[in-house]
Amino acid sequence: MNALHTARSCVALAVLALVPLSASFAANLPLTSTAQIPFVNFGGIYNWKADREKGIWIEDAHHKWYYATLLGPCLGLDFATHIGFDTRPVDTFDRFSKIVVPGYGRCTVQNFTASDPPPAKQAATK
């Protein structure tokens, strides 16, 4: 019984020794602000523009722009004419939501932040 008590004490001390290390590691991580677009009593999404297959700009009903970075390539997003926004389990689009591209599947949002509008399309030169 004494050996078991000693082993537990050693494990507890090792865990306590790592706590300051993990706290200092977490303090050095960049903080990103996350945004939300509520659908209930707000109006939801007004417009969107794909950033190829890596992300999407989203404009809410109040004409504020946001950018969603996607977890991986979102096949079909770049040329889709319509998409869906999966906001389950709550009616809010945020970093836990998904983009639904008909015929291709769901794309997971990795990060969702306030943004400037998407860049304007440049005129073709002759």
Structure description:
The protein has 126 residues and is an alpha+beta fold. It has one helix spanning 2-27; strands at residues 37-38, 45-51, 55-60, 65-70, 84-86, 92-93, 98-101, 105-114. Mean pLDDT is 78; it is low at 10-31.
Write a compact overview of the structure shown.
The chain is of the alpha+beta class and about 130 residues long. It has one helix and eight strands; from the N terminus they run H-E-E-E-E-E-E-E-E. The longest helix is centred in the first third of the chain and has 26 residues, at about 1-25.
Structure characteristics:
alpha+beta, single chain, two-stranded antiparallel ribbon, 126 residues, globular
Layout of helices and strands:
Elements: H1 2-27, E1 37-38, E2 45-51, E3 55-60, E4 65-70, E5 84-86, E6 92-93, E7 98-101, E8 105-114
Antiparallel strand pairs: 1-6, 2-3, 3-4, 4-8, 5-7, 7-8
Q: What is the total tally of β strands?
A: 8
Query: pLDDT under 50 segments (min length 5)?
Result: 10-31
Rg measurement, Å: 22 Å
What structural class is derived from the secondary structure elements? Answer: alpha+beta
Portion in strands: 25-35%
Tell me about the biggest sheet? Answer: 6 strands, antiparallel
Task: Report how far apart the termini are.
Answer: 86 Å
What form results from the Cα inertia axes?
Answer: globular
H/E element sequence: HEEEEEEEE
Portion of residues within helices? 10-25%
The main sheet orders its strands as 2-3-4-8-7-5
The helix tally amounts to: 1
Write down the oligomeric state. Answer: single chain
